[in-house]
# Entry
Amino acid sequence: MARVLVADDVPSILYLFKEFFKLKGFEVETAESGFEVTKKLGEKDYHLVVLDIKMGEKHGLEVLQDLIKRGYDFPVIICTAYEHLREDVDIIAKGKLDVDFITKPPDLELLWDKVVKLLEKNAIKEEIGTDNG
Amino acid sequence: MIEFKKTSDLDVFLIFRWLVLLSIILIAGYTTEDLSSISLIYIVSFLYFVFNLTLRLWKPHILKKQVTLFSLFLFDIGVVSTIFYLTGGISSDYYIFYFLTIMMASISSGLGAALAITIASAGIYVWLVQQQEGIDLQNPVFLLKVVFLLLTAFISSLWNKIMREKVENVKKTEEQKKKELQQFFQEIINSINSGIAVFEKEEGDLKVHLINPKAQELTMGNNEILSILKQKVRENGKTGIRNQLIKTKNGRYWGVNGAVLRDLKGKKKGEVIIFNEITERKKMEKEMERSKRINRLGRLTLQIAHDLRNPLGTVSGLAQIIRMSAEEDKEKKYAKEILKASNVINELIEDMLDFSKDQELNFDNFNYLSFLKEILDNFQKAENLKEKNVQIKLNSGKGSYEIKADKEKLRRVFSNLINNACDALDRDGEININLRQQNNSIITEVIDNGSGIPESKREEIFEPFVTSKKNGTGLGLSIVQRIVSSHNGNVFVESKEGEGTEFTVVLPKKGGKNG
# Structure
């Protein structure tokens, strides 16, 4: 079963993503802060991370940099409404992580399309053995 | 020579001359030893007294004439000579009376008159001497006396001239100073960059007594402000106008201040008014006030929009989940309705964010005509236009329509304007989009023949949250205005209720402030 980590500091959004991914047959873990993301990543392996860019104590961008530093290579979906943040994310993640974006309020059908696309791409990557780590 | 400016000065001079000569005659008469002549001297003095008394009846302008004065001095010489004759001729010392007359002539009529009087005196004197004793050229005293007479004429004239020049110099300097001071004040009044108008009461009516060039410039072709000022001067009574703001019918604003003018008794006789046109300042203040208000509103709107986003995300997200997982059609339908409503709220949030965000522009060079065509193509397919069977027509003038602008922002402008036009239309309406160039700008008119904007709303139609639509948020046009003005452009509206509305967007070709 594919495992996803969803991070958002708004409980209702977190609940929404949890229900959605459960419906789609995922095993879902949630994190309410950037610190919790780091902690949870140490406990289990994940196939996908959904990251809110604006989280109270630790900014989503910092979390992203942290992920890259630690050598994770799972795809990340970032929730943001800000164009300029997209550019920042692209600069940080280019060549290191597969990243895509969704806006709030999330269009779940669009989200699902992106999830499928990212996971397929990742699966191919694994199949042809270009694993860097 | 002395100019007798005032009649009283002349009077004093004449009376002084009269009294001095009269007293000399009387003294001469009193002291003379030749008793047979005494009665004659008294007759002469009496006649002199009477003659001078009649002078009082002469008209001042005749007395003032140099000829009259000269004649008077000649007359005096005659009288003196008579006394001289009666008191013993050459042996008497009364020839000194001539000096007095000569001095007075030189003071009042200058060197020429003094010389003439001297020559006359000397002539008479010589004649008398010859008549009485015969001229003895061996007697130097006789010659000395004549020379003294001439010297007196010269010295007193010269002295008089010097004194007069001194006085005149002082007078001239004073006049010059006065003139300079007057000129100085005149220059100040002329150069002041404020209108100055002095109102004074003349024959019971208030009249404009003085008006400086700036005031003339300000009131050119517009006398309304002057008549208002006049009215204010009348109304404000004793205090004068204090920091008043006046709006004239043509929409111009004026700042006015006044100072009361008083006569010697302290009664108000008029007022000095300083006024300036402050229309531009007033406009700027209004604009600043508006932008402050919009900024405040923008911050509030941004906050609300952000706060709404998360709960709306949950609502619409869960509705999507219900729609995906529900087994019954009824549930799916409910979920669909929730989603529809959420989308409406989301559009509102987007509008609010668009309105409150700073308009950062990303400039591109593109062809404006093709860009508009592309927008219109999309609209032709739009459901709301199809439903109402609305026709859109694009009419463009010749020329190149290359422009530097933020394409996405302009897309927003025209989609808002066309959507508004569509909302204002009933079935089978028409939207005309006219495109033309003027100087370095592209002018786009979006014209519909719909319901029009009510007059009460027209002035504030670009204000946020003002709408004439039933279901509008009132943000669309304020977003339009913000985007257009961030391109250094302008947007205007003209509308007639029941006939339609025309929006005109003027955009500079070379981009706005960030371009």
Q: What stands out?
A: Residues 140-191 of chain B form the longest helix (52 residues).
